[in-house]
Amino acid sequence: MDNKEILLTMRNISKSFPGVKALDKVDFTLRKGEIHALLGENGAGKSTLIKVLTGIESMDEGQVTLEGKPIHVKNSQHAQALGISTVYQEVNLCGNLSVAENIFVGREPMAFGRIDWKTVNKRAKELLKNLNVDIDVTKTLDSYPVAIQQMVAIARALDISAKILILDEPTSSLDAAECRKLFSVMKQLRAEGMGIIFVTHFLDQVYEVSDMITVLRNGELVGEYEARNLPKVELIGKMIGKDYEQLQQIESSKKTSHEAKENFITCRNITSEANIRDLDLDVNKGEVLGLAGLLGSGRSEIVRALFGADRILSGELNVNKKRIKRNKPITAIRNGLGYCPEDRKSEGIVSELTIRENIILALQAKRGMFRFIGRKEQNRIAEHYIKLLDIKTPGREQQIKNLSGGNQQKVLLARWLATDPELLMLDEPTRGIDVGTKTEIQKIVLQLAEKGMSVIFISSEMDEMLRCCGRMVVLNDKKKLGELSGAEINEQIIMEMIAGGKSV
Amino acid sequence: MKKITTNQIFWPLAAFIVLLVYNAFFAKNFFKISILDGHLYGNLIDILKNFAPLALLSIGMTLVIATGGVDISVGSVVAISGAIACSIIDGRLGIFDHSFVAALILALLSGIACGLWNGFLVAKVKIQPMVATLILMTAGRGIAQLITKGKIVTINSAPMMKEYYFLGAGYFLGLPFAFFIVVAVFTIVMILVKRTAFGLFLQSLGTNPKSSRLSGIKVDRIKLVVYTISGLMASIAGILISSNIKGADCNNAGLFIELDAILSVAIGGNSLNGGRFMIPASIVGALFVQCLTTTVYALGVPPEAISLLKAIVILVLCLFQSDSFRQKVFKGTGRWRKGADAA
């Protein structure tokens, strides 16, 4: 790797936030034609390092050089002008604009003093074709699934003639096939001499495409390694800074089979406004039920219907043997349900509120507006869960938006645990979260189930599903293909069911 | 220092004090308070009296803006409520003639009805708040004129005139009675905001309505309540204004007062995007706006220059409230910068 020309160096980068030292004298080097994975737990400083590089945050100290020349990035426009382009973790585009507009917004090709829409649409179409996405670029971005939106974000970044492409968790919302597409594009760009910084939590993907790996932990540099010389187990050890054992531990504690199957939820012939059709589903007390399927298979829509987030148009829903007529979130909560949505940022956290307020929100709603939880009680509840779930924060009065993704997720988990639910529905609870926190959340899920709480668990990561779920419902195209339980659960069978679209 | 300047109420309060200090030097007798007819009299007392309607409106407006909405119909609701109250006092409505109690109750009910209508359009029909309340803003003065049959109603000779006049212009314990109404309403609303979960829910849904709904907050119902409160506030303000001038003028009562109310909320440092809000800060904002108006009159500024002067003062204040502006201007000192970062 040493023979490659150095593109970017960051030396001694430090950055503090109120109460937190986010980066402490971190070094980072990127060479031409290299895919460089930037890894670490949540709060390790990856996002902050990227933000410093793209000018969103200003660094407290340190030097950055691009192609040998010192640079001082002022803001994201400046970064783009320098050739540093970024695709962020959560899609940062405008849903109400067309796909083509999103790609060209702010730099539309002009003709005779007006925007040349023909060229805009044509070039947008071509750019997406390079990524093997063939869609109508004049439709609004909203009308496409998150995966496509992510591709649009990448297309946008690629279009700005970039020297450096930063991909911050680009694959967390993509399925396997889409990932492969993305990787082939990344390799193509590498061959053209671009330097790519790749931030991800999927370690397999790291090994699939990366040349180099830089690991951060608690805002400090752990080291820079060649990917082929660093075994996965060792990498995980470096990231979490402790033994690899706890990953295995879960394996043994999983799936205590629940003989006494008492029903908590039964639905018959449920049809929802989000296109779930004639679905039958049972959830038993104290079980972890997995909803397996690809993106758009209907796994999210099912829990949304159960929770009353989407309207149920016909069919029968029973909770605790009680027929539910008009299902709304507040009804569901009072019936003992809790729901962590897939899209943490837009449907989960209330960014301006403090951690304390975010935690007690659902409990307060459950009790009703006039049975106000006093401030002392609020503090006690918040402190309890901050400790129980090991939420990393300077204090309960921090705004939740200042926390890292994994800690935000824990706050949301706390919000629901505080309501003492009988069924907790977790849609991608570990998406975009580091290995350590991921394992913690999986552990919590299993412990809750042992105490008799039911859990519906949805994840794109098959490993995680296999580890946690005692029973699995396999879905495709908004229909139920079949159910597997106990020993029947096996990756191979699930894949075959989904691929074949056939029921068992 | 850092803690103080980042407190939301600091800037409106500082501006208000600066304005008072300015008056102490340049406006003659601004602080002079004398006793006349058994009550206090002077510029400051006038401010307390005249700011009452605006303070009430800014309380309602703060809540509405916290949901991420706005209510531009309050000026028209002021006209409607004043029209109803005065028509009854004057005995020209045909029902409840000359009844003081009925005048108040019906006027307040009209405000509640207007608020419910706005809330229904925003929460249930999902019309953009600006447009939804624009409907009543446009129609409201027409409705008021229908009630008064197109006339300006004066109640100079009505039997209950004295009682009615007392509400907006009378004095109690030496202070304007209207001021006590503000204190009472403020206390009730603060209890609702601080001693129930209403305030928390409001901030939550103003920040993120989707998350709030999924956390079990009845988003639509709270919006409905908030617009209703705003309507109710406007009807009380309408009573005070019509009482003060002893009559209902459908065309001019509360004209453009919705803009002063929004301004008070903004000067109070509340985000117009919704979310976090602070009612006391809005009240100080209203106090500032009223004091500014009184100041320009006291200084004898020619009437044609008044609105321009007000605009300049407000622009300066808003610039000082902006973190990024302070950072740019005070970059060298570093002290301001730190305060802004922590915010």
Quaternary state of this entry equals heterodimer
Q: Which spans of chain B have pLDDT < 50 for at least 5 consecutive residues?
A: 332-343
Structural class of chain B: mainly alpha
What Rg of chain A do the Cα atoms give? 24 Å
The whole-number mean of residue pLDDT values of chain B reads 90
Hey, roughly how much beta strand do the residues of chain B contain? under 5%
Helicity range of chain B = over 70%
Helix content of chain A: 25-40%
Which structural category fits the helices and strands of chain A? alpha/beta
Summed up, the helix count of chain B is 16
Main features:
heterodimer; A: 504 residues; alpha/beta; Rossmann fold; 6-stranded mixed beta sheet; 18 helices; 22 strands; globular; B: 343 residues; mainly alpha; ABC transporter involved in vitamin B12 uptake, BtuC; two-stranded antiparallel ribbon; two-stranded antiparallel sheet; 16 helices; 71% helix; disordered C terminus
Could you give the topology of this structure?
The complex is a heterodimer of chains A (504) and B (343).
Chain A (H helix, E strand, L loop, with lengths): L5 E12 L2 E12 L2 E6 L6 H8 L7 E6 L2 E3 L4 H7 L1 E4 L11 H6 L5 E2 L2 E2 L1 H14 L15 H14 L4 E5 L7 H16 L3 E5 L3 H7 L2 E6 L2 E7 L5 H9 L4 H9 L9 E10 L6 E6 L3 E5 L6 H9 L4 E8 L2 E3 L4 H6 L2 E4 L3 H5 L6 H13 L7 H14 L16 H13 L5 E5 L7 H16 L3 E5 L3 H7 L2 E6 L2 E7 L5 H10 L4
Parallel strand pairs in A: 3-10, 3-11, 6-9, 9-10, 15-20, 15-21, 18-19, 19-20
Antiparallel strand pairs in A: 1-2, 1-4, 4-5, 7-8, 11-12, 13-14, 13-16, 16-17, 21-22
Chain B lengths: L1 H5 L3 H17 L7 E3 L2 E3 L1 H24 L7 H17 L9 H25 L4 H20 L4 E2 L6 H9 L1 E2 L2 E2 H19 L2 H10 L1 H6 L4 H26 L2 E2 L8 H11 L11 H20 L4 H19 L1 H7 L5 H8 L1
Antiparallel strand pairs in B: 1-2, 3-6, 4-5
Helix pairs in contact in B: 2-13, 3-8, 3-11, 3-12, 3-13, 4-5, 4-6, 4-11, 5-6, 5-11, 7-11, 12-13, 13-14
